[in-house]
Design brief:
Bound molecules: (2S)-2-hydroxybutanedioic acid
Order of helices and strands: HEHHHEHEHEEEHEHEHEEHHHHEHEEH
CATH class of the largest domain: Alpha Beta
Number of strands: 13
Number of domains: 2
Shape: globular
Distance between the termini: 49 Å
Helix content: 40-55%
CATH topology of the largest domain: Aspartate Aminotransferase, domain 2
Structural class: alpha/beta
Length: 400
């Protein structure tokens, strides 16, 4: 009955890993998916995560019962504090509803489904470009996707005027998806002053901000600094949605652990929101998984474990920042034509190189280097040992 099917294409990001895995070359390098690697090119399980897992394993009082539809209460409370700040007035006034989600993607999807069902405006504006999964998530949730200008190829920086113009002409009430920090794929973020202008515009047009926070702590190495833009919006007392992921900042990729928070105008509304979120979640996956959220809750609630986590998080962020400098230096040493300063200016996991899809294919074919066709490089996949190989490939791609 399915013989009529055509073969679906691989995912533009995860498909890069599929192609990489098929390549027998010993020099192959995967800079596609945004997943942290050590200097040895290996996936990293944080030491603090290993220790907590051991504690959980030894605790015979624990069971594997279903957890509530909205997830673990501790996890939700602590996640809201992490993103909005412990002293957030919205939390103190009980205006925040937080539910556990299946990492960033699942949290965005639940938020999208909730908006499609209960919000009066079905339009969502996404930055151009954005993470490839965003348009699919929100379209399938039932929203109409539009875009706002974000990236200026000429400067490899922010198109701030274009952004203000497009959001300024958005229909009143539209949802606006904002990358909280370390914009994926460009690595280009507004400054805090620009965020303040964006906030004023969004509030004056009654647009509804929906933050995607996939990299808190990963951009600057500081959890608080990376949450500043969201906290600006919470401080004005207005409404917003925020999706959080613990994939990158705790290295819990495969555990699928994240959260969706909705900030309302009153505690009464927040509790109505929670009641309706349950109706969205139950028919989708019933209730979320227990393991990853238990790890996160244990780390967030214990001061020593929390401190140990921030040290490991900062080490990951610092290694990425140092890779940026090393790649920039290597291109300069080769006299590679072009201004590569954006490599050190952009932040977070990715560099948006400006290489075109033909140059990317060349690098894959000749140098066995795998990256997405838009020229995005996951800096976290690079190491001191592999940087010269990448610089050689970029040099050859742009000079041929
Ligand atoms: C990425 O952009 O590489 C990551 O967010 C992983 C993913 O799921 O696409």
């Amino acid at each position: 009955v399915f013989a009529h099917l055509t073969r679906a294409p691989e995912d533009p990001i995860l498909g890069v890993t599929v192609a990489y895995n098929k390549d027998p070359s010993p020099i192959k390098l995967n800079l596609g998916v945004g997943a942290y690697r050590t200097e040895e090119g290996k996936p990293l399980v944080l030491d603090v995560v290993r220790r907590v897992e051991q504690q959980l394993l030894n605790d015979v009082s624990r069971n594997k019962e279903y957890i509530p539809i909205v997830g673990l209460a501790d996890f939700n409370k602590l996640s809201a504090k992490l993103i909005f700040g412990a002293d957030s007035p919205a939390i103190q006034e009980n205006r925040v509803t937080t539910v556990q989600g299946l990492s960033g993607t699942g949290s965005l999807r639940v938020g999208g489904e909730f908006l499609a069902k209960h919000y009066h405006q079905r339009i969502i504006y996404l930055p151009q470009p954005t993470w490839g999964n965003h348009p699919k998530i929100f379209t399938l949730a039932g929203l109409t996707v539009k875009t706002y200008r974000y990236y200026a190829p000429a400067t490899r920086g922010l198109d701030f005027e274009g952004l203000l113009e497009d959001l300024g002409s958005a229909s009143s009430g539209s949802v606006v998806l904002l990358h909280a920090c370390a914009h994926n794929p460009t690595g280009v973020d507004p400054t805090l002053e620009q965020w303040e202008q964006i906030r004023q515009l969004i509030r004056s047009k009654s647009l509804l901000p929906f933050f995607d926070s996939a990299y808190q702590g990963f951009a600057s190495g500081s959890l608080d600094a990376d949450a500043q833009p969201i906290r600006l919006f919470v401080a004005d007392g207005g409404e917003l949605l925020a999706a959080q992921s613990y994939a990158k900042n705790m290295g819990l990729y495969g555990e699928r652990v994240g959260a969706l928070s909705i900030v309302s105008k009153s505690a009464d509304v927040a509790s109505l929101v929670e009641s309706q979120l349950k109706l969205v979640i139950r028919p989708m996956y019933s209730s979320p998984p227990i393991h990853g959220a238990s790890i996160v809750a244990a780390i967030l609630k214990d001061r020593d474990l929390f401190n140990d986590w921030t040290i490991e998080l900062k080490a990951m962020a610092d290694r990425i920042i140092s890779m940026r400098q090393q790649l920039f230096d290597a291109l300069r040493a080769r006299g590679t034509p072009g201004d590569w300063s954006h490599i050190i200016k952009q932040i977070g996991m990715f560099t948006f190189t400006g290489l075109n899809s033909e140059q990317v294919s060349f690098m894959t074919k000749e140098y066995h280097i795998y990256l997405t066709s838009d020229g995005r490089i996951s800096m976290a996949g690079l190491s001191t040992k592999t940087v010269s190989h990448l610089a050689d490939a970029i040099h050859a791609a742009v000079t041929r």
